[in-house]
Amino acid sequence: MKIMKVLDKKVGNTEYIKYRINIPKKIAEDSGLLNKEVKVKLEKKKIIIEEE
Questions:
Q1: What span, in angstroms and rounded, lies between the C-alpha atoms of 10 and 13?
Q2: Distant-in-sequence, close-in-space partners of 23: CB < 8 Å, separation ≥ 6
Q3: What does R_g of the chain's alpha carbons equal in angstroms?
Q4: What is this structure's pTM?
Q5: DSSP-assigned states of every residue in 15-44
Q6: C-alpha to C-alpha distance for 5 and 26, rounded to whole angstroms
Q7: What is the pLDDT, as a whole number, of residue 31?
């Protein structure tokens, strides 16, 4: 997997960027986090996604 930088839109000279990560389908479904608000934090070079 990798983190992808994607151009969302460009307004005048300003570019708006989104970052995307594809995660395995099984992990996404088993997490119980689909369609819920989550928060993301960085700890010791690890990205942690948890329920808000």
A1: 7
A2: 1
A3: 14
A4: 0.64
A5: EEEEEEE---HHHHHHHT-TTS-EEEEEET
A6: 24
A7: 92
DSSP code of residue 6: E
Which segments of the chain have a pLDDT < 70? none
Tell me, what amino acid is at 13?
N
Instruction: Note the pLDDT of residue 48.
Output: 94
Residue pair 21/6 in contact by the 8 Å Cβ criterion: no
Tokens of 15: 């570019």
C-alpha to C-alpha distance for 29 and 33, rounded to whole angstroms: 8
**Model confidence pLDDT, tens digit, residues 17-28:** 999 999 999 999
